[in-house]
Design goal:
161 residues; alpha/beta; Rossmann fold; 5-stranded parallel β-sheet; 52% helix
Length: 161
């Protein structure tokens, strides 16, 4: 299942829940700590796993999230894993230098929230992250159909898998 990770400050939980609802209405599954963390489990491990399993991270930028070491951990971990980050600005805040170069979506203007732009961008990233190597394997299989090539190591390794 394709999954997007939502990183936010607890102070922004209403916006996070609305984001989850809007994305799920568009058919996008969201990892949000309120729904995935279970009592008794190692929450740091659960968060790490959620980031690893996601194809992108949405980062709610606010004064509260900028001050949160946990939010910083989440986006830094995602960045270290090569996950695309989509910042959404909720209000005026200090932005970490590592995030300054990443274009954000502005959700700070009431009545002008770009939900459709967010959904489109998430869908674009998801499409970009689909595994193109399967197309290459399919091409290889088609190329070898017409001319048997029992000694082709690529074909043998695929068939042996």
């Amino acid at each position: 299942m394709s999954l997007v990770f939502l990183s936010y400050s607890k102070a922004d939980h209403f916006f996070a829940e609305l984001t989850r609802i809007k994305l799920e209405e568009a058919g996008i599954s969201v990892w949000i700590d309120g729904g995935q963390l279970r009592a008794g489990n190692d929450w740091r491990h659960e968060i790490d796993q959620g980031i690893s399993e996601s194809f992108a991270v949405i980062l709610a930028l606010s004064a509260d999230s900028a001050a949160s070491s946990y939010v910083t951990y989440e986006w830094a971990s995602a960045m270290g894993k090569g996950k695309p980050i989509i910042p959404i600005r909720l209000n005026e805040c200090q932005v970490h230098p590592k995030l300054e170069a990443i274009q954000y979506l502005d959700f700070s203007v009431p009545g002008s929230l770009p939900w459709s732009v967010l959904v489109e961008r998430v869908q674009e990233i998801e499409a970009e992250n689909e595994l193109p190597e399967y197309d290459h394997i399919a091409e290889l299989a088609n190329d070898t159909k017409d001319s048997p090539n029992d000694n082709n190591p690529i074909v043998e390794s695929i068939l042996a898998y």
